[in-house]
Amino acid sequence: xxxxxxxxxxxPALETNDLGFTHRDYEGAISTLCAGCGHDxxxxxxxxxxxxxxxxxxxxxxxxxxGCSSKTPTYFLGQSHGFNSVHGRMPSxxxxxxxxxxxxxxxxxxxxxxxxxxxxxxFAHAIRRAVNMTYIVENNGVYGLTKGQFSAxxxxxxxxxxxxxxxxxxxxxxxxxxxxxxTFVARSFSGDKDQLVPLIKAxxxxxxxxxxxxxxxxxxxxxxxxxxxxxxxxxxxxxxxNALDFLAGRAPITADYAEGTAQPVTLHDGSTIRLRKLxxxxxxxxxxxxxGHIHRLAEAGEIATGLIYLDEDAADMHQRLGxxxxxLNALQGADLVPGAAALEKINAGLR
Amino acid sequence: MxxxxxxxxxxxxxxxxxxWACPAHTPVPEYIRRIAAGDYDGAYLINWKSxxxxxxxxxxxxxxxxxxxxxxxxxxxxxxxxxxxxxxxxYKNGVAALMPRAPDQRNGKRVACIGxxxxxxxxxxxxxxxGYEVVVFDGDARAGGMMRSQIPKFRLPDSVIDEEVGYVMxxxxxxRGGRRVDSMRALLAEGYDAxxxxxGAPRGRDLDLPGRKEAAANIHIGIDWLSxxxxxxxTSIGKRVLVLGGGNTAMDCCRSSRRLGxxxxxxxxxxxxxxxxxxxxxxxxxxxxxxxxxxxxxxxEFLHENGRLVGMVFEKVRADHDEKGRRTLVSTGEPDVxxxxxxxxxxxGQENAFPWIEPDAGIAFDRWGLPVLDKTSFxxxxxxxxxxxxxxxxxxxxxxxxxxxxxxxxxIDSYCQGVDVTKRPPPMTSLISQKMGIHEWAYDxxxxxxxxxxxxxxxxxxxxxxxxxxxxxxxxxxxxxAEAQRCLNCDAQTxxxxxxxxxxxxxxxxxxxxCITFTANGEESDLRQRLxxxxxxxxQAIYVSDTLKTGRIMAKDEDVCLHCGxxxxxxxxxxxxxxxxxxxxxxxxxxxxxxx
Lengths: 351, 596
Ligand SMILES: Cc1ncc(C[n+]2csc(CCOP(=O)(O)OP(=O)(O)O)c2C)c(N)n1
Ligand code: SF4
Ligand SMILES: [Mg+2]
Hints:
CATH architecture of the domain at 99-202 and 352-416 in chain B: 3-Layer(bba) Sandwich
Helix content of chain B: 25-40%
CATH superfamily of the domain at 99-202 and 352-416 in chain B: FAD/NAD(P)-binding domain
CATH architecture of chain A: 3-Layer(aba) Sandwich
Mean pLDDT of chain B: 96
Distance between the termini of chain B: 31 Å
Shape of chain A: globular
Strand content of chain A: 15-25%
CATH class of chain A: Alpha Beta
Helix content of chain A: 25-40%
Number of helices of chain B: 23
Structural class of chain B: alpha/beta
Largest sheet of chain B: 5 strands, parallel
Largest interface: A-B, 33 and 37 residues
Number of helices of chain A: 12
CATH topology of the domain at 99-202 and 352-416 in chain B: FAD/NAD(P)-binding domain
Shape of chain B: globular
Number of strands of chain B: 24
Bound molecules: thiamine diphosphate, iron/sulfur cluster, magnesium ion
Oligomer: heterodimer
Radius of gyration of chain B: 26 Å
Low-confidence stretches of chain B: none
Strand order of the largest sheet of chain A: 2-1-3-4-8-7-13-9
CATH class of the domain at 99-202 and 352-416 in chain B: Alpha Beta
CATH topology of chain A: Rossmann fold
Mean pLDDT of chain A: 92
Strand content of chain B: 15-25%
């Protein structure tokens, strides 16, 4: 089986972003995932989001664990920094990297096995520490890379390819993230880029821990009848809370939606997301109500997608810890060795 | 939009831009693949079937296929389709034995072809193997028509013409060289079942300017001069030569002059350089041989002294466009330009002339002196007389003449067999999956990034010494392979099956040229606005699927599809497949009649 590299030729009239790049400049190596894998669509959405935000690829760091999902950072943003860590250990590597160099944009890519099984604890602590990052779980309900065992996010009763029902209760990572204090929580679907791309853009712009649980069908092991993570099932049970348009910069809000249905939200950097409400008066600022709402939908067999919760004024890990604003690798000798007088002062403070 | 009907042969045919643009609809990608595989015989025969003169056309064709080539829309230049045809002719070795011979039994029908140029020879090749007794008349002793008389030998050696004309003759054609037909009535009286007129556009236009008569000895009509050179009657020309006109004949005139003693040869054209009729590569070749092209110079007068041409006067003009966009040439007001010269070649166009067709022969002509013909059968107002090539619709080129010849042969066959000549047979097509494995196709789907390779040529010092030395050396097999690899295999069609699609977006994500969109259906103009990448060539089709499960449709802009098969490789369900579309035009014969 050969994987030809994607030809370099592109459409002659491709749009370019503020940096003069086309979306093709955000590509990585050719994907070796199974044909039709939802993860590839998420990679494509990430490239699209970074392109549309005109992010310089060399200012992004992609970190991942182990799994088909964790392999994907090789397949996008070929010019970015990357670290493929051990199984379930992406969150601590990312936290460390972020502490050392707070100036990069951190993108954690993980799977449901990587984050809800072996790395469950790591996931929890990175979220509760408010690490400034975009954390995407490419959730297919199985361990794809090891050939389709049920993962911890697999719904109770969901059937394996061989027809065996999963006996255990599922972990809903979005609910957990809400409980742990994530300041941006969303859920989406690899087959709906109209929803996914603006969510990734908003998450990348968010200052704090942004978590996206992205359902991503595993074509090889979990896309059959009886699975609750198949294309057909997710399309049939997708209950979108809202739709959002991401407006870069301080663009005027020219919503022409019926009153009360469009809600502008301004992010830290001044960009705006315009939420179009689809589910009554669902409030993205009410953490407790959000948990209840998605639980009630889950009870009814529906999957809540869209922007679930947002706290646009939260403090991130660096603010909480009061760390120096300069990245550690940029600190000069004088900053690091302040001299005897400074030491004297510190010692005096400890007496 | 309604779902695309891919069972209509013209849909996939149009996707193969080169084949669609070729008047004879030569299956270009197929012969290029054969060249890449080293099967030069196969490549030659595919060409020979379609266009009869691969070696000749591979050196001289006007190449309508190349501007159409998709490669030219994704990078700088199209595939060198024409010169690859020459490669097939140069390196083949076993085709002679495969060529059709005269049939053992004739069918009793007699067909006369007037003129032994590409149109007549095509009619002869198509009909003679079927049993027709085909008699070809020509004023020249050897067959070939303008291919032999007007195309300079440094572009097209006689040996190539001899070989390919030979294949036609070998089918049992009765060639009567040196017999110019000078009365249609007399010919008709000989009782032929059908007559084909393929006599070309034999009259070169003159320029009636002051001094034309006085300086006549050094003023020549381009095409007449070229044939005089071809047949060895003219072997020299003055040092300073002016060539008037901007077509391919002018380019042949100036390059021939350079080889016959013209050291200071200039082409002078009335309009702008860009508007010249000559193919861009012919202009390039002329300039490469040190021939300047002066544009916006309108000839006014021939200057002469003591009965000898000494120069020409030109008025300088510029192009003005009125509000309707019509162009007129207006004087710039600058003083006239005088160019000294020893000889002038006039190559400002050709006309049809049928002085040998009697007005009462029953063949009607229109007010431009062209025969009144049925547009598809080429039948004249005299039902057993058919026209083709330049004689039919005025000057075009060899490949059009060949295409006309095929159509006329079908008509003549139908006519002789009592079948309605307006009934035209459809082409033969096939569509076959190229899938061999998960990432394996029966064609080479990797896209070669190379830019167009140049055909090696002789250095000017050698090339300009002898008018019979071929200047182009042709691709060697290595270069030919590399150039062949540039072909995008546009006949490997992306075929979509709606019921198999699960709308996973994999094809949209992988397509290197953003051809594919899943969206709500709409009118074509609206849909074109909503594609993943902008639609920039509205003449390129949008392939539209049936309605999918989610209510959307798949819309694929065929325009810049690389036919790399990535969509099909990424498709988990086989909803996309790469299938080879092969289209062969119908030629005269029983099988063809039964399909009509
Ligand atoms: C420490 C360790 N334990 C177990 C494994 C085996 N292993 C590899 S991938 C994987 C599960 C990956 O599942 P998930 O994160 O959902 O990724 P997917 O392939 O489904 O995208 C496991 C258990 C491992 N590589 N390392
Ligand atoms: S096994 Fe599943 S998750 Fe892994 S690449 Fe294949 S389809 Fe994707
Ligand atoms: Mg998984």
